Amino acid sequence: MDVLAPTKTFPSLVDSNFRLQVPHNSNAIHFTTSSLPKRSSRSKLSSPSTPTLSTHSNGHPSLSSANLSGDAAGNEVLRRLVRNGELDSALRLLESIFLRGTDPPDIIPCTSLIRGLCRSGRTAAARRVLDIIETSGASPDVITYNVMISGYCKSGETDEALNLLHRMSVPPDVVTYNTIFQSLCERGKLDKAFEVLDHMLHRACAPDVFTYTILIEATCKESGVGHAMKLLDEMHAKGCAPDVVTYNVVINGICKEGRLDDAIKFLNNMPSYGCNPNVITHNIILRSMCSTGRWMDAENLLSDMVSKGCNPSVVTFNILINFLCRKGLIGRAMDILEKMPEHGCTPNSLSYNPLLHSLCKDKKIDRAIEYLDIMVSRGCYPDIVTYNTLLTALCKDGKVDVAVELLSQLSSRGCRPVLISYNAVIDGLSKVGKTDEALGLFKEMEGKGLKADTITYSSLVAGLSREGRVEEAMNMVLELQGLHIRPTAIIYNSVILGLCKARETDRAIDFYAYMVSRGCMPTESTYMILIEGLVHEGFGDEAVDLLGELYSRGVVKKTSMQNVVARM
DNA sequence: ATAGGGTTAG
């Protein structure tokens, strides 16, 4: 015990000065900390670019014929520009002619212009068009407003949408409100949606099936089916009949609450409500049956729907294929896929991907590639998930170079690599000791505007640690703070492992303390790595004490403990 | 306005 230099951090460890550090659960044990390298605090947040108006009004050829100051000829040019998709020229024309002209612009091309600008995310420019219409003395109609409001909603500017709703120069219609409901509900702002509903009723605008369906769906998610049912009653009372979609939304809610049998009853009662279930109704129930392992029920439901004349869709089959693949029943999944055309369905990439994934998981990459060829020969092109599956399989099969090659070809194959594609290959490279090459890909990825996540860093940090480049690994972990990425236990563990392997168990313990101070819960591996480290440096007794303590706390499993002892 | 969303890290 006295071999331990007093300056080191070990003593407090072996003196069993154990103290719970993390309040909630706590398997964290307290080691004395010593200071860690100062972490750099970089904040490189680029501010999102705001749409700006192009204000330059220097002569555009197509404007020359329209120097008559906002008259019929001007509108003709405006229509042509909008029709040809020359949005910026149309905008300039509006600014230069109609803003001060005597005749107002035609609101129909203006509405198209607003729609076009919104589609490319330029809501500020679109709003400018609306403002020009208003100041030029023309009055936008409800459609113009609806297009603008929908543009705001799609770009997430719900507050702007609401402001515009309140200052429209014509009464909003049910479409205006439904657009806003949809957007508020998607963002979980259900309270606000109900406020708007009050507003709608005050203005004597009657809600329709869409209105209620949107609200019922959101209510199922936020407050449960029980509350949603009240809305369904209210809907009935107001003389608005629910349709299949309304019922499907409710059935989906019931399934999500784990009440599959109630959902089935609802399905069976639907005809008595005057509404027949459709494929989607069945698919919702089918999915729920599969995910709860009720395979026989699923098979029966499938034959039920066929006998009722409700034809299965691609989704129906994909649900079944997915389920079978998860259960490892690849053969049956393939049979189903092959039978799809008999039911008038063409398999898509979502049909093939689970099969490819299962084959890869079973290390049958050659068969997966054969199947890929079949898929392509049938006109179904691989998507990014297909490629990601292959990239992962290649890496796991020791063909990292092939994976690198494939990754570089993705764009020319019509598939843009995504974060997961890079993560798969970066991980593959890191695992075979080619961390520098992995770092190169990481740079390339960032150059393409893809932001690395915790998994990317997890692979890189582990790669660096394995190569003995622990300093770099540690610095990378410290840098994550400025990037709003919380390192996981996996990341900390790999650094701790790297330090232990380098016979720097004291620093490993410091890093452990740092991990705990950052609020990251250690795992069983964390402790096992540290214990192995202690053993390697000749502190077997201390390791055993610690192990006993951890075992008595239930942090370490008995088998893990026996394994360590057996190796000593 | 409803169903499939699969693929990556110790």
From TrEMBL:
Organism domain of life: Eukaryota
Ranges where the record places region Disordered: 31-68
Compositionally biased spans, kind Low complexity: 32-55
UniProt name for this protein: Pentatricopeptide repeat-containing protein
UniProt keyword annotation of Repeat present: yes
Keywords: Repeat
InterPro entries, alphabetized: PPR_rpt, TPR-like_helical_dom_sf
Residue ranges with Polar residues bias: 56-68
Ranges for the PPR repeats: 106-140, 141-171, 173-207, 208-242, 243-277, 278-312, 313-347, 348-382, 383-417, 418-452, 453-487, 488-522, 523-557
Family statement drawn from the similarity comment of this UniProt entry: Belongs to the PPR family. P subfamily.
